[in-house]
């Protein structure tokens, strides 16, 4: 009754965590109680305060409702639980941690006064309850106290008393006082429940409670009023453990709840070839695998939709958080952000990843590089107009020059009164002047008449304007390939109205903006709520797809880890602005889970070894996608592709010049052959040989003169050789 009263007091403090049920209300069918416990309360810790004779039936029925799983904890309060017969029904279905308490019993050590257990506890207790043992200790206490009092009062006269005497026995008060003050050394025989001491009111104040597992009768710890709980020194005491297998100590299988989210949890491409947990891959999969190796547990995955959102209307959670609240899973892992609201319903380990919030935006791809990029500052029609202007100006220049008397000059300036005049402004010279002006190179000959100079000046002005415009447009065009967004921060997003922005509905990012006291964050949140159509998405994947689809018309606020992952794999995405806030990912476990500390310690070990960073590099860095076409360069840096057209024009001009030079050479060979009456082959050979003599700078007017000189040199050389031969013969 006192236990029920104490529990009622706790329930009054916090009825959400402590629920009290009277077994008498479920005496007809205990299955109703356990079904309610599993489906409604989702309790993992159960205190059972009942008579030992009903324990077997209660616990046996609970198996059908999975209340004896490896993560359940039962505490049986009755001191006679060891006599309930639980060991008769104990099998591998009982994987829960079942504990109880009893008064520690010992047998006397004949060699010393210290109370130790030399006999197995099963042999000491047998099938008896604690009541005979307590009666035995009470009789020993009374007998020892009475013996001491009687021994102190010599001679002793037996009292002439009976139970119906109206007045108490004179020595009774002395015996009661002796019972309260007697020393342990004066007690003979010794107590079976170790030392017994009473306070002034006759209440026992010194006793040891043994915490043990009733299913295998294995002592674990001892509780004393003075020192609290202490572990047993099993190496010094003889225990009965080991006679029955303890199924609660078997390797546990954790249910890990998660959801599909790249790169945390994904299906393998060839998952058809695998079974069970081997079908999955990702950062979360590797993390759980590392933890299972350190803590030596098995695991299986449970897949749900989403991390866990809170519905204020139903006041319920979904996703990973829901499964943990219902104790359908033991560990929750994914991109699960630690928030105060989530911590009110589940526990978190230490963070395994630190992150923040940033803006994901579309990055327009640069235009394909063109070899003839130098032509793009002007439209095609402008180039056509310039060509026609060149031709028209050339013809006009020739015609007007022929009309101007100042442009007709004597062919030989030394002749004062020539018979004819010559006009130098033919088509060739006029074209050269026009082209030289456009190229800013000038010309060796210039017009003399004023109207010709006006015409030339206007052409120069036209050439100057076109060249300046071309240079400016070329610089602007070449630097425009470097992508730059007008939005560079969250402040820029707030100040404009063309680009809508949002986040995942009900996620930690939305919660951050909705609960922030910062003015800019509140403005951003209000704008997100007012956008039509809605700027919120159901998942991060949907938000990324929307950014790419709207091509600059939408920005998505998301965690930097997921943002970086998507940028690595999509060249048309970029991050805008700096990181906003600070968040952490952690493993979620049900409230009060005793294995949370071990998980946290293991995460710290992985962090110290650098394993967490290695796993992040493995799943975030993408070595298969290169974004060379999106590579942002400085405006002054031009590739050979963009300037390749200039080289092609140069090569084309050189080739045309060489071809025209060859044709001109052949034409000249034909004329020389006709004039000097030689064969074309002779003329070709002579002209080619002379052209290849790069050290000769003067050319004879006729081929014959050159041939005569060569013949005379050959004849004189032959005469000199004949004379030398005759001299050698004479000498011999």
Automatic annotation (TrEMBL):
Alphabetical keyword list: Cell membrane, Glycoprotein, Ion channel, Ion transport, Ligand-gated ion channel, Membrane, Postsynaptic cell membrane, Receptor, Synapse, Transmembrane, Transmembrane helix, Transport
Primary residence: membrane
Bias-annotated ranges (Low complexity) = 704-715
Keyword flag Membrane: yes
Annotated GO MF terms: ligand-gated monoatomic ion channel activity
Region Disordered: start and end of each range?
701-732
Keyword Hydrolase part of the UniProt annotation: no
Stretches with biased composition (Basic and acidic residues): 721-732
Q: Transmembrane region positions?
A: 382-403, 458-478, 646-667
Domain of life, per UniProt, equals Eukaryota
Its record classes its membrane topology as: Multi-pass membrane protein
**Where would I find the Ionotropic glutamate receptor C-terminal domain in this sequence?**
253-622
User: Which Gene Ontology cellular-component terms appear in the entry?
Assistant: postsynaptic membrane
Instruction: Report domain Ionotropic glutamate receptor L-glutamate and glycine-binding positions.
Output: 263-326
Any idea where this protein resides? Postsynaptic cell membrane
Which family is this sequence assigned to?
A: Belongs to the glutamate-gated ion channel (TC 1.A.10.1) family.
What is this protein called in UniProt? Glutamate receptor ionotropic, kainate 2 isoform X2
The organism encoding this protein is Drosophila mauritiana
Question: What's the gene?
Answer: LOC117143039
